[in-house]
Amino acid sequence: MSKKPGIPKGTRDFSPVEVAKRQYIMSAIKKHFETFGFQPIETPSFENSETLMGKYGEEGDRLIFKILNSGDYLSKVDDTVYDDRNSTRMTKFISEKALKYDLTVPFARYVVMHQNEIDLPFKRYQIQPVWRADRPQKGRFREFYQCDADVVGSNSLWQEVEFVQLYDAVFNELKVDGVTIKINNRKILSGIAEVIGAKDKLIDFTVALDKLDKIGEEGVKKEMLAKGISEEAIDKVQPLFSFSGSNENKLDQLASLLSNSEEGTKGVEELGFIIDAINTLGLKSSKLELDVTLARGLNYYTGAIFEVTAPENVKIGSIGGGGRYDDLTGIFGLKGISGVGISFGLDRIYLVLEELGLFPDVLEDTIDVLFINFGEQEALASLKAIGSLRAAGVKAELYPDAAKMKKQMGYANKRNVPFVVMIGGEELANNTAVLKNMTEGTQETLNMDELSKAFKK
RNA sequence: GUGGUUGUAGCUCAGCUGGUUAGAGCGCUGGAUUGUGGUUCCAGAGGUCGCCGGUUCGAACCCGGUCUUCCACCCCA
């Protein structure tokens, strides 16, 4: 048993059916990325560690897969570092490359490196695997695909509006009804923190607030207190805990709550613009929801924050996310370039479609016709016929061995092949072929011309 | 990284409080049917019970470790 091969934790093999289903999702995403004007790029599977490390917070560093240096990497390690036996500190001496953790940071690196060849605003999309050294659980893998679309070089809020439409277009195409596109704005969160006098605790505050739907009001308050946020401060944000009504309604409440904060007011304005525009333009099947508790994601979001959640009856959490980052390329030395983008979680969308039974049946791909193998001469004649069928776009194959009929027929049967052609001794002599319909069980003898015509649609 | 959970034939799973040769269904191979599948019937192959160690006269079953699965936390797609 132990001799059996295995694959690493959190990785998967994909069978032909699974690949077909994944491609179905990917092509829907790709189609809309392209109709929205995005162009594809690809970046390497692994980057220099320094490109990735420190970009996702402390937690992120832990989850980055590090690649061991080639050669005799230990001999180059300094004695003091070696004797220290501190893994974190040792890492940079024995590993200088790492598997990419997301598509956004490598994209920022790409923009900086290729700034002279890019025309701004630059709209790119990217569909590639990423890796995280996380513990697997439902909808969470160590290798998974992200499908990202980002725009750099434009501060326009119309981009945000278009991304909402893009999410809607893709999920509508995939026939997933009832997707919620949640939207928030970092400036609103900062504004709230400012108004309650906890500006220095912005991250702790937002992380706690984000858990509202999970641990409830009391839980959130408890966590905030534990993080050193005062009771008066928590009292001031009380309205947030029972935030309800229409998006416009929420905006009004936020506007008055944040009237003393310049930044917060800006955030309310930005959100108002996006929500107004979407109200006028309309969405096909998703709904846009202002959610002040939304604080997910990376520390670099500065404006809009997006998160897409699956329809209520599917418990999978978020299937996409994104936001605006005013200065992402700044970390690589290119200041003043704003970016905004969204991401689709392919593997999670797959689980949603599977659970809702939304994959089309036609994805079960098979060949159109199997030729039974009766021996050398017969196989040769079969391959002649197969050649002209293939030229006409028919998926045809010859059973490779002159095995027993039962076996060959059984193979056709198991692969759901709709037609079988038999060219045996008799047919060989008469230059004919027997075409059998496997679902009806009927068959007829045809000459070669009639055979190729039979498959013309 | 923390806590819990799972592992028996190719697959899905039984297996009593530890007691002789570990079972079923499906699948697989062969035959009934030497050029006609999906149905039926008959026969057969296939397991060092995840791995390592311990307790015991005796371990699939108890204990420890390890790997794997799934779940929750952290975090996230």
Automatic annotation (TrEMBL):
Transmembrane segments: none
Domain of life: Bacteria
A GO CC term attached to the entry: cytoplasm
Residues binding L-histidine, per UniProt: 102-104, 132, 146, 150, 296, 300-301
Domain Aminoacyl-transfer RNA synthetases class-II family profile: start-end pairs: 1-400
Annotated localization: Cytoplasm
Keywords assigned: Aminoacyl-tRNA synthetase, ATP-binding, Cytoplasm, Ligase, Nucleotide-binding, Protein biosynthesis
Catalytic activity: tRNA(His) + L-histidine + ATP = L-histidyl-tRNA(His) + AMP + diphosphate + H(+)
Molecular function via GO: ATP binding; histidine-tRNA ligase activity
Cross-referenced InterPro entries: aa-tRNA-synth_II (IPR006195), aa-tRNA-synth_II/BPL/LPL (IPR045864), Anticodon-bd (IPR004154), Anticodon-bd_dom_sf (IPR036621), His-tRNA-ligase (IPR015807), HisRS-like_core (IPR041715), HisRS/HisZ (IPR004516), HisRS_anticodon (IPR033656)
Main location: cytoplasm
A GO biological-process term: histidyl-tRNA aminoacylation
EC numbers on record: 6.1.1.21
Assembly and interaction partners: Homodimer.
Name of the molecule in the record: Histidine--tRNA ligase
Top-level taxonomy: Bacteria, Pseudomonadati, Bacteroidota, Flavobacteriia, Flavobacteriales
The encoding gene: hisS
